[in-house]
Each structure stands twice: as C-alpha cells, then as structure tokens.
Structure prediction request, 278 residues.
Amino acid sequence: MDFYFDKVLQPGQAGVIRIHLQTKDLATGPLEHTYELQTNDPKHRLIKVTVTATIKPLPAFTKRISNADIQHGDTLGAFIVWPTARPKITLEKDERLPISLRIRPATPSRNVKLAAADDSFKLTRESNGDGYVLDVTVGPPADAPSRVVPLIVKVEGGEDLKLQVTTNAQAESLIVTPQQVDFGEVPLAKLQSGATVMSRLGIRKPVGTFQIKSLKSSLEFLQTESLTIVDGSNYLIHIRFDPSKLPKAATYIGTLRIETTDAAHPQLEVPIKVVVTP
Prediction:
C-alpha cells in the first residue's frame, strides 16, 4: 500500500492510497482483500478499505508470444501496449493465429481517440475504461523464414503509434527424440532374472499443444507408458519388457505407433530394434 503526499494530511487536503495487487500466484476467480488504515483522527482511528476483483486467466495467445511482458507491457510514447508492442510469434505451417493487443494511455486521465490506419486489423474501444483493443490475425511467412507486419494506429492530435508483428515458420510441428529405438543386445538371462530393461523416447511440440491418444508396439513383449513432462507440449515414453511375455533369443524389428491430436502428425511410427542374446 502506497501513500500520496508524506502520510500527513492537513485540514482540507485530500490524499491518495494506491493498492497494488500481485495476482501471479493467485487462483483465477473472485478476489476480496481488506486493508486497515490507522489514523490519529479521534473520530476515524481505523479505516477499512475492501478491494474486490475478478482474476481472469491469461489469454492462450500470450503463451505464443516469445517476448511478451505480461506484468508491464511496452511503453510506446504516451501509451502502454500489452503484452508487447512488437510481438514475436512462431507459427506452424499454414497456421493462422488471432491475437489481441491492449492499448491504454500511460496517464489514466488522458482521453484520446485512436483509429486503424488500414483494414488489416480491427480496433475497438474497451467496454469499460479508456483503452482500446487491437485484434489481428497473423499467418505464417509465405516465402521466407520470417515476416514483419507493421501495424499503424492513428492518434487524434498526436503522433501515430507504430507497432509490428514478427512471425516465424516452424519446420516441424512434432519433434521425436531419438528417431529410432534401439535396445542393443539384451541377454535373455537378464530378462529371466526379473531385471528391468527399458528405453526412452521423447516427443515435444515447440509451438501449440497436442495430446497423445494411444501407444502400441508391434512387438507384443514390449510395454509402453506415456509420462507428462509439460502437459500439452512435452511427453516421455517408457518402453520396457513385459515380464509375463519374455521373447526367445533372436533379432526383432518392430514399430512403435503413436496416435496424437496433432493435425499435421495424427500418427507417428518409430522403428524399434531389439537383439535378445542367449
């Protein structure tokens, strides 16, 4: 809680109390905080101030902007642009992503009118407040690894706001590491003793989200299990021998089939090689 002036109000004066809310570690939903202000006024020795608010989740597109400043935004002239005035976004092939930028005067009392310089984006006034919302849909670069799209906002009686969106192309929507599972030579005696023999496979999505729908190995003596590292973007698959279905000594070539919700790669097939020695 911050005070305007020096915490001393002379007769007839007015003061301002600024209350800062840190919502980073708070759950979404209704919020109510009560603060107590102690004074030397015999009639009002204790003043209670209650702040109510609703914490909304961050828009999903903010996670796609690599240089977003969620807490402060960017200061551009006499305005603050949130989450940034120059968003940098990586897109999948053929993906089009709608984003919104909030433009507000840096000084709350300043009331200005903004207008779109062209029809490449939509600019609307906030329903409550003195700011604007700029809606734009960005697409992947056409013939180059990246593309810069300028966004010009007209300011009544002032200098134009020059914003820009940079888009980059993502080569692969899903990255599988390693691209082949090779157990090498596995002694049959080791398997018969009950020892755990396991290999790992990682799947991650640099841009966007996906889920693993199912896993299946063409080699019946192998079990598969998916572990979540980062929900929606990074998974680890464990592949181990089934103790109830031990194979004979031989060389086995198979495939791990992975069904996903990724539109570009609904099914992945990863080669598996196992050499069981006598």
